[in-house]
Amino acid sequence: MDTTGKPIKVSRHAAQRISQRGATTEETEQAIRTRPWRPAKRGKWHARRVFPFDANSPVNGRHYAHKTVDVVFADNPASIVVVTVKVYYHD
Predict the structure, then answer these.
(1) Model pLDDT for residues 61-91, shown as the tens digit of each residue
(2) Is the sign of the CA dihedral 6, 12, 17, 18 positive or negative?
(3) d(Cα 78, Cα 37) in Å, to the nearest integer?
(4) What is the pTM of this model?
(5) Of 2, 26, 24, 3, nearest to 74 (Cα)?
């Protein structure tokens, strides 16, 4: 959980994935700032948060009640850099 208040920067790749997978930048930041951090590959971290959704998925068009936004990021000395964002839709 980020309590440092470091700025969060979103890489170009991550911005594309956020848009393609149906997340928002705000959800991405909330996941980093409010959920526990867990180790990811290559020295990175990830944090995931479940959000109410109650809509059709942009991926397959099916209706889901919730979505989980899973953010992979690097914790650098001056900022947090989002590497990619995965989104899972579920009831």
Answers:
(1) 999 999 999 999 999 999 999 999 999 999 9
(2) positive
(3) 18
(4) 0.91
(5) 2
